[in-house]
Every structure is written in structure tokens, then in C-alpha cells.
Design brief:
Elements lengths: L8 H19 L3 H23 L5 H14 L10 H19 L24 H19 L4 H12 L4 H8 L3 H20 L2 H7 L28
Helix pairs in contact: 1-2, 2-3, 2-4, 3-4, 5-9, 6-7, 6-8, 7-8, 8-9
Length: 232
Amino acid sequence: MPEPRAPSRYVTAVLYVEDVLLVDRCLTGEPAATRELFRRHRNRVHASLFRVLGGNRDMDDLLQEAFLQVFLSLRGWRAEASLATWIDRVAVRCAYRHLSQRQRRIATDPLDDDAPIALTSPEAGPGARRQLARDGVLRLYAVLDELSPAARLAFTLHELDGRSLAETAELVGSSVTATKLRVWRARKRIEAAAAADPVLREFLDPALGSAPGSAGGTAGGVLVAFDDREAP
């Protein structure tokens, strides 16, 4: 199957003009334009914030705050970056403030370290795999809760949201080198936690779930394969 081609420069130019015109309409106070901008970008911003937070507990408030800041700051968009990138940057700043101010955990229930651990076997049914996924996500975000907001944003945007290091650095307002260091440290922290937690280890790497200390890369898990050459 052929790989999808990148948009041509003509398509990019058309999209740029559409963004400029839409922003101009928003700035004149046209309600339909405001709704259109929200409609175009809501799903992408929601997905990114969901991966940063790990759940929907504060999502509505944070999404509302992000777009409120977008509309309040819209005159500041100078079209030096795409409108989507600029909106994502505003949303990331809102997420950073949210993570910095939050006093409680994201997880809906605290983890019970004394609860029995049930690992899945290769023959486990879909119900057991779904339970592993739920438990694994809770444990992964429990580890992410221990990171600084800057490290958490760098890791989730790069590893979970699939953005390049360069794009992640642009969104968080940091250098590529600093962003790479934060992602690398977050990976090492998660690896250390997975080495001591068989549920998290199996969730991150089902193929290596029974091998102690093998939490780095994944065949079907969350993290991409870790290579020490990526270390800063």
C-alpha cells in the first residue's frame, strides 16, 4: 500500500489562506467563525490533552480554558507558525498550568499495592486483556504523576501523542536538547517502575512481561523501543 503523500505547497498555501480568513472573521466577532474554528481544532486538542492528563476528570474545564485563551490571544497569532501549531501551543501552556496547580492525582482510584496481581497469559481472553490495559494505564499515569509538569508534557507529547522531538520542543517552548533530556529521564523513570511492577511491565511490553527488568521497548505496548544512543 503506497504511503500517503505530504500536502503539496499549493494545498498548504490554500490552507494557510483559509486560516488567515477564518481568524480575520473571528476577530470581527462573527459567531459562525468562532464556532468553525472550535469545530476544526477541538478533536485534536482534546486528544492531546487526554494523553497528557490520562483521563477525562478535568477535561471539559481544561478544554474550555484552552479555547478561551485561544480566542483571547487570537490577535497575537502572527502566522509565523500554522494556526494548528499555535493553538496547540496555547493548549500546552494551559496543561502546564493545570499540572503545576493540581494537588491531587489524576487516577480515579488510588492504586492498592496489596491487591493481588493477575498477569495475562498468551491465551487470555479479551476481557483479561482489557483489564490489563486499564490497570496498566492507571499504573503508567501514577508514574507520570511523579514527574515534573515539564517532563510529563515532553514525554506524553512525544511518546504518547506521537509528535517529533522538534515539534514537542516548539510546543513546550524549550530547546530540542532539553526536551530530549526530559523524555529520556521520563523513560528511565518508567523503566525503573516497570522493573518493580509486573503489571506495568506486561502492559508496556506484553512480549517481555515475564522477563524481569525488560521494560524498554514494546511490541504492542505504549513506549517506543528505547535505545541508549538516544540518551543526551
